[in-house]
């Protein structure tokens, strides 16, 4: 169970990391209209079963691992995931995604597109960096918990 949790946490951290180091950097090079349209499409595309498995599984798996073997590192891994990944996503990224999704690009003028992007891009990127760091910390803490459990059983 712990190994599956660690693998899924690693995949999730990888998703956020890739967005931080490549996807958002590539999008940043686009003019406002193309940026908004591309981000809208990406936000729709990521909502798929494979992403949901990686993103939501730790919500169940981390508490199960914690229940089966309580360690401070697993508790911290759980807190980092619940607060730094899920909390930030729910309170920050999703409302920004919804704001951008509702923006009518076709009827907007250049200034409106510039303004919506300025409201969205720096906040969303910062929140994604936080999710990246927190998911990575959760992954590393879970890995440490697994290796220390292994050493104690030897």
Which labels suit this protein?
single chain; 154 residues; mainly alpha; 88% helix; elongated
Cα Rg: 18 Å
DSSP summary, beta strand count:
0
Task: List low-confidence stretches.
Answer: none
Main beta sheet: strand number and arrangement?
Answer: none
Number of structural domains: 1
Sum up the overall morphology in one term.
elongated
Order of helices and strands: HHHHH
By DSSP (H or I, 4+ residues per run), the number of helices equals 5
- The portion of residues assigned to helices is over 70%
- Terminal CA distance reads 19 Å
- The amount of beta strand, in percent, is under 5%
User: What do the pLDDT scores average to?
Assistant: 94
Structural class based on helices, strands and sheet pairing: mainly alpha
